[in-house]
């Protein structure tokens, strides 16, 4: 059973909340493995370098991550008043989302299942 009044519990929970600027893309139509190839390339880099890497990366996931990175930079600038030149990618990860299951017809009346995977991609920035 929880201790204290509901408002006190909420206050304590909000005190522990992460205040770093971030952006999250839910239900991205790309698998976690494919998104992680791009995310691994930008992890720990400063924001401008990460944006350059993602812009010239040929993978499909890089387009989604570029848009997400621009959003996180805009959040840092407008909501937190941070300097864009001091930002770096503190965390970036992709979590597994729901899977759409589709059927592909095969020979002799058989049906093979195709799994179209989704992911939830998160980018967290921080100041140096």
TrEMBL record:
<keyword id="KW-0694">RNA-binding</keyword>
<dbReference type="InterPro" id="IPR018260">
    <property type="entry name" value="Ribosomal_uL22_CS"/>
</dbReference>
<keyword id="KW-0687">Ribonucleoprotein</keyword>
<dbReference type="InterPro" id="IPR047867">
    <property type="entry name" value="Ribosomal_uL22_bac/org-type"/>
</dbReference>
<dbReference type="GO" id="GO:0006412">
    <property type="term" value="P:translation"/>
</dbReference>
<comment type="function">
    <text>This protein binds specifically to 23S rRNA; its binding is stimulated by other ribosomal proteins, e.g. L4, L17, and L20. It is important during the early stages of 50S assembly. It makes multiple contacts with different domains of the 23S rRNA in the assembled 50S subunit and ribosome.</text>
</comment>
<comment type="function">
    <text>The globular domain of the protein is located near the polypeptide exit tunnel on the outside of the subunit, while an extended beta-hairpin is found that lines the wall of the exit tunnel in the center of the 70S ribosome.</text>
</comment>
<dbReference type="InterPro" id="IPR036394">
    <property type="entry name" value="Ribosomal_uL22_sf"/>
</dbReference>
<dbReference type="InterPro" id="IPR001063">
    <property type="entry name" value="Ribosomal_uL22"/>
</dbReference>
<dbReference type="GO" id="GO:0019843">
    <property type="term" value="F:rRNA binding"/>
</dbReference>
<dbReference type="InterPro" id="IPR005727">
    <property type="entry name" value="Ribosomal_uL22_bac/chlpt-type"/>
</dbReference>
<keyword id="KW-0689">Ribosomal protein</keyword>
<feature type="region of interest" description="Disordered">
    <location>
        <begin position="1"/>
        <end position="22"/>
    </location>
</feature>
<dbReference type="GO" id="GO:0003735">
    <property type="term" value="F:structural constituent of ribosome"/>
</dbReference>
<dbReference type="GO" id="GO:0022625">
    <property type="term" value="C:cytosolic large ribosomal subunit"/>
</dbReference>
<protein>
    <recommendedName>
        <fullName>Large ribosomal subunit protein uL22</fullName>
    </recommendedName>
</protein>
<comment type="similarity">
    <text>Belongs to the universal ribosomal protein uL22 family.</text>
</comment>
<comment type="subunit">
    <text>Part of the 50S ribosomal subunit.</text>
</comment>
<dbReference type="Pfam" id="PF00237">
    <property type="entry name" value="Ribosomal_L22"/>
</dbReference>
<keyword id="KW-0699">rRNA-binding</keyword>
<feature type="compositionally biased region" description="Basic and acidic residues">
    <location>
        <begin position="9"/>
        <end position="21"/>
    </location>
</feature>
């Amino acid at each position: 059973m929880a201790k204290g009044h509901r408002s006190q519990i909420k206050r304590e929970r909000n005190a522990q909340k992460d205040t770093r600027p971030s952006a999250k893309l839910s239900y991205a139509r790309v698998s976690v493995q494919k998104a992680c190839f791009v995310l691994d390339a930008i992890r720990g880099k400063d924001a401008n370098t990460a944006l350059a890497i993602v812009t010239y990366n040929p993978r499909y996931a890089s387009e989604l991550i570029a848009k997400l990175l621009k959003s996180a930079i805009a959040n840092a600038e407008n909501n937190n008043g941070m300097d864009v030149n001091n930002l770096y990618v503190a965390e970036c990860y992709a979590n597994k989302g729901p899977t759409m299951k589709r059927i592909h017809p095969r020979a002799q009346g058989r049906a093979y299942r195709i799994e179209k995977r989704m992911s939830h991609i998160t980018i967290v920035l921080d100041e140096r």
